[in-house]
Automatic annotation (TrEMBL):
GO biological process: amino acid metabolic process
Cofactor or coenzyme needed: Zn(2+)
Species of the source: Gonapodya prolifera (strain JEL478) (Monoblepharis prolifera)
Localization per record: Cytoplasm
Protein name: N-acyl-aliphatic-L-amino acid amidohydrolase
A Pfam family matched in the record: Peptidase_M20
Enzyme class: hydrolase
Keyword line: Cytoplasm, Hydrolase, Metal-binding, Zinc
NCBIfam families tied to this protein: Ac-peptdase-euk
A GO molecular function held by the record: aminoacylase activity
């Protein structure tokens, strides 16, 4: 990390915020083996530079979350949380125009890297907004917690899911947390007040084995096919429901058959076969009803057909954060002042917010990225330097409004 001061000068003749953002992008926190240690090291130095106390919270021996604190003058008030995940999804390097971990800046200011949108900018924007406010002599009334999480991209089990169970989390007394959203290709910011629950469904069918030249009755494949067909019919009906009613993706159940398993040889009817599905269930759909349907389809298929959900996915209470009250109204005021349209909806994918909401903490997902294509998990992910800096200003205003002046 090149030397700099609290006023934000950078030897590279580049705003310090952008330099730190690019440095963070170069740390390979990429699955399946994210370099969390490298990220923690970077964040320790960063916190030191901006003079914020830091806590490193081990979630597993190799995975630690990072919490920075900007102390408010009235710690008794519920605090503002600003969270971002440190991990990023894998890349197909051959598809990238530039090294995805070089954080190359193109002549037009586009910064190309894995994590350029999802979601390394936010972590740096939070800290840079604090740097600017500190430099301007502003200090908050509420505590502001900047949270860096692990494993969001693979379900948050060794991350936010465990963190919300800790004493530290309770002590933080969070009144509201801001998390990631999705870039808007047009003007304005998308904002998410809820999210669909991921259900990673595994259907297993078993049946008699034998030579594949015969009509072996009730084979695993025949039974599995019944369930697959029913699920895919349901998929079609949900897609139709979305299109005819002009609903958002966050309002219907999406379903994709993503993994097929089983079988050993062409001419051997296997004893068991599996099919795995990525299903996303909106908070507005009844979990019992959907589980009931799946149960019925498995039963109809015959004996020896079962289903289960992978890991911590599957039916769960899935809260919505109310678009009312002081936190939400504060966000709206900031957007209005900045002339920024807000587009609220339900997050179609899953993120850390669901664990916050089910712990009773309202959470809003908003990535301050407008007029930029959504390249989450895609190749050539990028963010323009100017858009990144606009995001720093957004959080300056957000903190002023939500954390209150002392
Ligand atoms: C099982 S939770 C998976 C979380 C992941 N989050 C971002 O992409 C997602 O697929 O939505
Ligand atoms: Zn993300
Ligand atoms: Zn992601």
């Amino acid at each position: 990390m090149p030397s700099s001061d609290l006023n934000g000068t950078s030897p590279a003749a580049e705003p310090i915020a952008v330099t730190r953002y690019r440095e963070y992008l170069r740390i390979k926190t990429v699955h399946p083996e994210p370099d969390y240690e490298g990220a923690v090291q970077f964040l320790r130095k960063y916190a030191d530079e901006v003079q914020l106390p830091i806590d490193v919270i081990p979630i597993t021996p190799k995975k630690s979350m990072v919490i920075m604190k900007w102390e408010g003058s009235d710690s008794s008030k519920p605090a503002l949380g600003l969270t971002s995940h440190m991990d990023v999804v894998p890349v197909f390097p051959a598809l990238w125009s530039h090294d995805p971990f070089a954080a190359t800046k193109l002549p037009n200011g586009d910064i190309v890297a894995r994590g350029a949108q999802d979601m390394k900018p936010l972590g740096v924007q939070y800290v840079e907004a604090i740097r600017r406010l500190k430099t301007a002599g502003w200090s908050p009334k509420r505590n502001v917690w900047v949270i860096f999480t692990t494993d969001e991209e693979i379900g948050s089990l060794d991350g936010m899911a465990k963190f919300v169970q800790t004493e530290k989390f309770r002590e933080m007394n969070l009144g509201c947390v801001l998390d990631e959203g999705i870039p808007n290709p047009n003007e304005g910011y998308n904002v998410y007040y809820g999210e669909r629950a991921p259900w990673w469904l595994i259907v297993t069918a078993t049946g008699p084995v034998g030579h594949a030249s015969q009509f072996i009755p009730d084979s695993a494949g025949v039974k599995l096919n019944h369930v697959i067909s029913k699920l895919l019919e349901f998929r079609k009906s949900e897609e139709k429901r979305m299109k005819t009613n002009k609903l958002g993706l966050g309002e219907v159940v999406s379903l994709n058959w993503t993994i097929a398993g089983g079988g050993v040889q062409f001419n051997v009817v296997p004893a068991s076969m599996t099919a795995k599905f990525d299903i996303r269930v909106p908070p507005t759909v009844s979990n019992e009803e959907l589980v009931g349907r799946i149960r019925t389809w498995c039963k109809e298929a015959g004996d020896g057909v079962s289903f289960a959900f992978d890991g911590i996915t599957g039916p769960r209470e899935n809260g919505l954060s109310k678009m009312e009250g002081e936190w939400w109204e504060g966000i709206e005021r900031v957007a209005k002042r900045r002339n920024m349209p807000l587009y609220p909806s339900i997050f179609p994918a899953a993120t850390d917010s669901r664990f916050l909401r089910s712990s009773g903490v309202p959470s809003f997902g908003l990535s301050p990225i407008q007029k930029t294509p959504n390249l989450l998990h895609d190749h050539n992910e990028y963010l323009n330097e100017a858009t990144f800096l606009e995001g720093v200003e957004w959080y300056v205003d957000v903190m002023k409004e939500l954390a209150g002046s002392s």
